[in-house]
Fold each of these.
Amino acid sequence: MIYLKKRQSIDGARDLLTSVSISYDVLKLAVAREPGVTKTAVESLPTGSGQDHLPVVIAAMPISARERRIAFSLIIVLAVIDVMVAPFANVRLARADGFIPAVQTVMCVIDLLTAALLFAQYSIYPARALLAVASGYVFSGLFAFIQTLAFPGVYSSTGLIGDGLNSAAWIFALWHTTFPLTLIIYALAKDRRDVARLSSGSIAVNLTVTVAFVLVTTAVLTWLAVNGATYLPALYFNTLEQTPSANNVNIFLWAANLAAFVLLFVRRRTILDLWLIVVLFAWWPNFLVAIFETYVRFSAGWYVARVVALVASSTLLVVLLAESSALYARLTHAYLLLRRERADRLVSVEAATAAMAHEVRQPLTAIATRGTAGLNWLKRTPPDLNRASECLDSMVDATHRANEIITAIRGLFKDTPTQRVMIQINDICSEVLNLVQDDLRVGTITATAEYQENLPQIYADHTQMQQVILNLVRNAIEAMRSGSSDNRRLRLVTGFDEKSSVSVYIQDSGDGIAPEFRDRIFDPFFTTKPGGTGLGLSICRAIAEEHGGALRLSKTDSHGTSFELIFPIGSASDNRTAVRPARSKANIEE
């Protein structure tokens, strides 16, 4: 019986040795990488190439309510302008031969810049449908400029190229056939999961082939319009008056534009779809004026239609530049946060690893040596139980020593100086919502914030507070991914109990936490997520308690989960005063 008990003690010591060894290897691996980047963090980065993983290009970003309102407002403005100008569309105005080259040269530059940005987005998000849109803008930019060369009265009375009468009109027809055609191709192909992992060489080849195809096609079509105009139906009797054939051509062009418009409207998913709809709508007056009026050029409707088309054509370029600037700002902010976090934590992690490597090795070596000796004493015939008992006593002492070392190393993290200042918790919540904007878009989650005004400030580390709330918000987002996309709501509510503490509530509309897990969610290494580490909530609670506050599970059921963060108000002198969770006026459960 004594032999079995001692044998179990030796097995227990071996288990301790194994668990401590694994913990040491994990910690050592965490800092063996690039400073500030753990292996877990690297492995958790998105590696797929679908839309869910690349919400950084407008061809993959879902339409937000704000963008929908802006685009709809612009369409309303364009429609109002069209209605106001319609009664005067056929009014003859002074002939300005410099109008066409000025407007269409600017349009050419805008369209080619837009195409360049779309090609750049293809290098990030290699979807074939994106090449179709970029090709359409290359066609548009080139034909916009080429038409000025053939337009009568611009550079010469008969134009620099063409027959001096119909070539410019046919180039316009080719222009507004190729552009909607590429958008139709895009609309039909954009929902296919054809985003592939391509090497930089493959992407460069695809871009080169696409640009070459567009240039060759443009050259061939231009040659046909310039040299074959005499064999094509006449579109103008003179430089101002259209033929009936021109009306039919304009009906066809408007029908092609309308087909692309309807397809994009029905299949709209992304920001790119939305603004292409606006661009197509802006070109309608050009076709409608030409359909219903015989004398088109240099009329009030003709001038206004070209200016409106120029402004609307610029919208996609503005959106691309705005999204690029916003992305750059978010990346810069994230980089600064990473540097600050690394500066705060890297030294402590390295010190803890060095201490673990140096100090824990000695008691572990003693445990292994004494365990081997104890086994040898027990294998003797008869077993020397006294000597075996001495070995086990030494192993127990070494175990206590290892426990003391680990406790001391944990203290390194708690005692690491932090830069605590007076901060406003409403500002932290606002920063967090800005950081997760793309996650909210991809998850089609509606986020609302209810901030109590004039909240007292708390004395805390800005980065730690941000990371705590950010972790809770991201947990909430993950909890809603499996639910219906029509019922994904995230709420952040701040409040003050009118006494000594402020509170933050984070509520999701997910499926809730299973009853058997509710008492364990704050335990270290406990997780219900397949790729989780089980450290997020335990670290959040530790940071909250280190600041004299608390973190608790406020509510969870089939309608969602809410967490409550409590922090004491005050200054550095009384920051260590702990508070207990208290219900504030802004309790999210109400």
Note: The beta strands are 420-423, 446-450, 458-461, 489-496, 501-507, 550-557, 560-568.
Amino acid sequence: MKTSIATVSLSGDLREKLEAIAAAGFDAVEIFENDFLSFDGGPRDVGAMIRDLDMSCCTFQPFRDFEGLPEPQRRRAFDRAERKFDVMQELGTDLLLVCSNVSADSLGGIDRAAADLRELGGRAQGRGLRIAFEALAWGRHISDHRDAWEVVRRADHPAVGLVLDTFHTLARDLPVDSIRAIPKERIFLVQVADAPRIDMDLLQWSRHFRCFPGQGDLPLASFMEALGATGYDGILSLEVFNDQFRGGSTRRIALDGQRSLIYLNDQLKSPSRIGRRPADLPPRAECLGVEFIEFAVDEQGASELADLLSALGFVRTGLHRSKAVTRYSQGGINIVVNSDKEGFAHAYGVVHGTSVCALGLRVSDAQQAMARAEALLAQSFRQAVGPGEIELPAIRGVGGSLIYFIEPKSDLGRVWEIEFEPVEGTERSIAGAGLSEIDHTSQTMQYEEMLSWLLFYTSILRLEKTPQVDVADPGGLVHSQVVQSPEGSVRIALNGPDHGRSMTSRFLAAFFGAGVQHVAFETTDIFATVAHVRSNGLKLLTMPGNYYDDLDARLGLDRTLLNRLRESDVLYDRDETGEYLQAYTESFAEGLFFEIVERRGYRGFGAVNASIRIAAQTRSARQNDLV
């Protein structure tokens, strides 16, 4: 089965779209009429471009408001179709997508629609062309693929076939088992799109929120299993309308489309598998935890970060045998501070300044994790390995950073022993502030990138997405969504601002791109930890008194607990799963910061407190600018 994508799915002009689609490995392309109309050239030019890129044009679309019209509109509709046929023949495609009528002038009746399609099919056949009929979910008289199939069946013409579209079927919760009875030769095209579950008008939902498989909530696998039962082996094409895609990178979105089909393929049983890629991939990598977080710094940044980590209770536990790289540890947390003047971290730091340049994830099988990542089009990373060093498998992550795969039971798990000299005399029990694990990392990116990285993480790793939440920022709105392992050993928050004045937007500008903005450390006693770090001279973010007054009014907390929260500048939330307490350092290095959290069974991330934290950080930044 060959893969395709509709040009409407991508940003850019038609040439940019076609080049990106070819680079992503698609076999074919659907030319959306508006893309053609805005192109400065004729249909022969477009057809030549497609062929030069070693692709075919599988469809010209859409042809709207055709079937069931009264005269004289009916005659004009056939005249319009003939003009489209002229374009198609020069373009080099034989298929016209005809979507069900939404016009108030259209007349109902399956037989009337079938007669119109039969006549149109005859005209198309006379020119070596075909037509494919699609039921729009908001069609005036035909909005169900079962009715569209009945129209095609009654038209009974070899040049008239059916378009099946996952969105139009699944958005209306139509049964998919009916697809199994459709003869495969009568299905001329299958279009695929996912979407988040939103209770809104179907047309608006379709026009703004469709996305690639794996980025939404629709049960695509059940649709594809039903399609597989027909034996269909024709074109499978992505057709997506999405505001985020329209503002995103053309090549990145095209690559996401191909990745989404590989991921969808991996979820299907063998009879329903699609595309030309290997059917069997290693399973999604099981995440066991975060082995380390690596910071890229210069010499001054290394000194400043060392002071901050020391105040948080971290101690030096290792020095790299050949590089200016230091390991800091506390509990099960490892922080790597890399100020070496060569290698990836140095290059990353030149661009971004003091920054998180890499995450080391513990996985059950590093080789399988790499194999799956590469099959899903992730970019692998390799650099020179010196004597006595281990080559850690890695892929590129957000903002060009790295994700290393560490397998604890292999030599990869001995990286500290092999590459680092231990620091003698370290007494972690004395210096520690009670921090035990990395609770989560937060990655800030352009809003248009969020769906890309959501698909990246959930297709390669065994991470599940949580519902998206919107956080108020004094300068705008920030969209946030978390991907996490089932047991919570790895949690990554994806944050995207929708306005250039928000704090997260300012971080993106100062950072010169997407990256980790904050790291959260877990403790079992946040009040003891706060007292300890304050005794070390660390200043935490000050929270407004109004917040605690409201907390008392909303939740009626025990007076002792409320006073402790206020005195410690600790934020609080609770739900049916438990309680969540959180405190923050002030920002450093153009917007980075650390968080301290205590979970008492709580599974969320304190979203209700995010706007309070952001406002406090904004206030703190303004005050510091005045000093």
Note: The longest helix spans residues 607-626.
Amino acid sequence: MLQLSQIESIINNKIVKKMTPSSDGAISANDIATIFVAIISFATFLYVLIKDFLIPGKILIGINQIIFLRPPTNNRQLVAQAIIETDFKSSNQSDWVKHLITIKPELPRILQSGQKQLFFETVQGALTEHNIPTSFRNDLIIDLSKQTGFGTSFGIPVNLTNSGLKPIYISEIVLVFEDQNSDRIFYFDAFIVLKEESIYKPNPEIKDVDRIDTVFNGMWVPSKGVSSKLIQCILRIEKNDKIFTKTNILPGNYKYYVIGYSSDGEKIFESKKYDLKIEPITFINSFSGADISVKTN
């Protein structure tokens, strides 16, 4: 691209060479046309300069799937304890709970006395000693999945394209779910950058920490370039002293989309909206340790 000084030199040369004043000093029609062409050329150069270098380019976002990630191990352990406790107190106990009580009849008494640590240690010891298989009730999993502590999060493969010549920094990325059957809106904030191979080639035995590439701290999109990351978005419960939700995202029909912000809170991009139906079985499968991928449409 020509520099400003080069453009000015070309314009001046054209004007000097082509302007031929008459004997009385008047400028001819040809000279006026030359000046007009030079002004148009210079204005075009300024437009390109401003558009490509001074005005930030447009960010285009591509999303080909959304991944319902398994809850973190700590969350699953806490949910499992809540399920066991609820099952023991239920009038419709699971068969394995009834069997366990025949082996350790003191368990209901320990639980009722509030000695939860002793209760869970005794349960775990009996399950291991007698090799008793456990099968958590689906209705209890679904009921507990409504709590924010269930640990639901989503993986989003974010592909950003910068149409301009000025690099753009995206400070914050938010995944938004709009419930189509109510006015509920759930926000999930980018928190972790995941290792792609740990998600696309799942290993049930892999530890949570081994799925993490780094903490999300924004991303640069180079000029006329592309930047891609697999981002884990976690439920926004509270922010800036404002409560956003008191429950986890619930089963239902949703429109979801992704928004990116600059460091000063300016919206840089917003994706198109996609449909997603979250079934109760999704929470059951994710609690079992599965990552569920859904292609965009």
Note: The first strand starts at residue 59 and ends at 62.
